[in-house]
Amino acid sequence: MIDIGMIHGRFQPFHNGHLDYLKNAIFFVKHLIVGITNPDPTLTQESDSDSHRHLKSSNPFSYYLRMLMIKHSIQLDKDLKDRFLDITITPMPINKPELFEYYFPSKNNVVQLIRLLDPWDHEKKLLFEKYNFNVVVLEGKRITSGTEIRDSIINDDDTWKAKVPIGTLKVIEKFNKS
């Protein structure tokens, strides 16, 4: 078992695919760090492997709201609620690896747990390896996408509600009044 593992994502919003990723990762670790990437616009950069990741329209939820989505989703999930104290949520400046040391334990103590679902994931794997992190690739498949959910919310199409954990649903319904 890995002492400290880390998963990461934009979580715009935190959806059922992300929850599956988290559940898969926590099985392998004593403690799991959930890194929320693009915590603010100053740390967001364009990437050749993903043409929309940096756009304001692709990042409608603040770090705070994404943290709440994850926190409440863990607390309300029957499989995770007993592991709540084994999970830490933190901002993660994915585009500024030189700042990683200020956000989570050293690379010698943290194993990066990733899924390779798209070109951006492969780019992140190379980034972590370049900075000498131990990287473990987890199995997984795409369940849904944040783009699909954001489009559904914008179009007042309630189908998005079945694609997110109850914690995310509650946060969005409470704070997304616009």
Salient structural properties:
single chain, 178 residues, alpha/beta, Rossmann fold, 5 helices
Distance between the amino and carboxyl termini:
44 Å
CATH architectural type? 3-Layer(aba) Sandwich
> Strands of the biggest beta sheet: in what spatial order?
3-2-1-4-5
CATH superfamily: HUPs
Which runs of at least 5 residues are low in confidence (pLDDT < 50)?
none
Percentage of residues in helical conformation: 25-40%
Per CATH, the class reads: Alpha Beta
Number of domains: 1
Give the biggest sheet.
Answer: 5 strands, parallel
Number of strands: 5
Structural class: alpha/beta
Percentage of residues in strands: 15-25%
Shape verdict: globular
- The chain-level mean pLDDT equals 88
List SSEs in N-to-C order.
EHEHEEHEHH
CATH T-level fold name:
Rossmann fold
Compute the CA-based radius of gyration.
Answer: 15 Å
Separate helix tally: 5
Report on the architecture of this protein.
With 178 residues, the protein is an alpha/beta fold. The chain has one domain (2-175): HUPs (Rossmann fold, 3-Layer(aba) Sandwich), CATH 3.40.50. 31% of the residues lie in helices and 17% in strands. The chain has helices at residues 16-26, 63-75, 119-130, 146-154, 166-175; strands at 2-9, 29-37, 87-92, 111-114, 134-137. A five-stranded parallel sheet has the order 3-2-1-4-5, sandwiched between helices. Helix 3 (119-130) links the parallel strand 4 and strand 5. Helix 2 (63-75) packs across helix 5. The termini are far apart.
